[in-house]
Design goal:
It holds the Pfam family GlutR_N. The protein is of the alpha/beta class. The chain contains 21 helices and 14 strands. The protein has a six-stranded parallel beta sheet, sandwiched between helices. A four-stranded antiparallel beta sheet has the order 6-7-5-8, sandwiched between helices. The longest helix has 27 residues. About 15% of the residues have low confidence.
Length: about 550
Amino acid sequence: MSCPFIARIRFASLFLGLVAASLYFTRSPPASHASLSSSLATRQRSGLQMTRVSPQCKGRLSRKLRQTRVMELTGPLDTGMFTLPGPHATVEAPRCPVTGIALPGTVHVVGLSHHTADVSVREKLAIPEAEWKAQAARLNAMPSIEEAGILSTCNRFEVYYVAHDTEKANEEVMSFLKEKSGLEHQELHPNLFFHDGTDAIDHVLRVSSGLDSLVVGEGQILSQVKNCAAHGGDDDGSFGKVLGKLFNVAVSTGKRVRSETGISKGAVSISSAAAQLAEMKVNEDLGMDFKDARIAVIGAGEMTRLLVTHLASTNAKQPLHIVNRGRERMERLAEMFPNVDMSLHTLDEMWEQIGEADIVFTSTFSQDPLVSKATLEQNPRNGKKLMLVDISVPVNVDYDAKEAEGVVAYHVDDLKQVIDANKEKRMAAVKEAEVLIKGEIRDFEGWKQSLRCIPAIKMLREKGENIRQKELAQAEKVLGGLSQKERDTVERVTKGIIAKLLHGPMSHLRDPEEEMQRVEYKLETMQKMFQLGQIDPHAAVFSDGKKKNKKKKAKQAA
């Protein structure tokens, strides 16, 4: 028998072995193992004796029961921001019983929004963007939280985190929220929403797509989600692999929804809704036409830019009187709108401008009200009526301002009548967006599940490559004298054969529809069939926010 013929037989054997493995992986694990594992695990947790169990099932069960280890902590726990009363338990991440890989935790979202809480409650949790990263780091320092992020806008405050021990993590987040808001549990809890797992992923994607916004389809929220992703993804940010991936998906989904559906067509922003509300109410409240009303705007940030964009497209009276702490932002704003007449004023001229204005819009980052009943009475208007439209959170116009004589005041929550009229026009686009989001959720869940398979897949590829190289070395001894072109062709063809043969088994491992127990069974089967040996759990590309920060500190120390 010739050597080339032997080499061909070896390749054929490899081919048949891999095909057999691919077919074998599609089988379901024995039902007895699954049911016994579940039943016996329940008995173990409840302290019941395990009887009439075969040695094989005992081995499988013991591996399952070793997945989670708990380390007890006693006494109070200092988080660096406040103290949580003890005792506390830190739960080590569950591990895949086959590979020993630490499995990723569950995604959680806790927060409040215009759907669940009035602006008077939302403002108590509002955090300027400059503080998002620091506050997320405080959350991430808590023992049960592995990754964390914060998003705070005028209409929502949300905490995103990854954890294995949901109960403990929720307690830690609630302590953080109570400390930040100054509210007791019974005051705060009714205003909050809680999502975990698939519901949490769905919520994040709906937020970035503008489906959960006060103004459905508005574009500003996508920029805010991008900023949240940027803060969390920094070297000193608190995102790990799970939140990092989720927010990348959220940003790309937000872009897809806006480009592939009509949801942003005709959409209004909070700022344009405020201008429309003033336009609707000015005759009723002030007895004048909108085109005759003198307008002042306090603040020169992004919300003001959007407001000026809308006012410039209407018959609003010019010049627009802009008031801000510093002149630099106002001058940049004026440069953006060369065709809009603007009069720029610093804060020391604020009351002079309010006194002369008919309509005042406020949108600043001030943590305390700029206008109140008391300050209005200290600056009399000689019977002139005034409309205040505040789109800030925390509020710039105190709630008692409307009690001052001749003053009407509107806040963010008063914009709903304008927004609802626009919402109906985009309901078909909302349904299209929801279908798109479902596909993105399925892909993300599949990616998350595939993390446990990475080391096994890597070892399978390495084994296939080692076999390929050995067989090629044997073939070259027989064939001899191959030109470089022939050698390159053989390399390409044999690599292609290995890749195609391994594609089936690897696809089955990554199947997002598979249940965890079935994936574990496939991993164990593959480990035995291909004699992969001990799979290295550290080969997984997986990290959490705490590990990332530790690496950053170690690098800085070096």
